[in-house]
TrEMBL record:
Keywords: 2Fe-2S, Iron, Iron-sulfur, Metal-binding, Oxidoreductase. Residues 3-79 form the 2Fe-2S ferredoxin-type domain. It comes from the Bacteria. This is (2Fe-2S)-binding protein.
Amino acid sequence: MAIHVTTSINAEPVEFLCEADDTLVHVLRDTLNLTGTKEGCSTGDCGACTIVLDGRLACSCLVLGVEAEGKSIETIEGVATPGALHAVQQSLLDHAGLQCGICTPGIVVAARALLERNADPSEEEVRYWLAGNLCRCTGYDKIIRAVLAAAQDLREAAS
């Protein structure tokens, strides 16, 4: 039996129907066609499906669609503004911090969430914050450098 869910996704009101056992990553991708969120492991270990759920990072493969009722969700589709990449996205491009792209949406969502909370993180803080995001292609040094550079770019743009 399908369950009606009312939520907010990327600051837009959304309603959908899902089964009680549908994961949020499947609802996002298959029902709502928000395919930027990737499913990597289905066990919450890789971070490819990272979203922000009511202000906290969450692996959408571990959240049921029905749990989104009344909550606020931010996905990779909500990161950039129309016609412009977010500083984290641009920095990952500039610093070769991405390759195959499976991990990239989760890393971008997590890095943006970090920079919204801490405009000047240390390398250690970035590594800690992104510890739940696995990358098999690029390696972490380029990703960490890209996030630190994005933080500097955002600080400079704000001043």
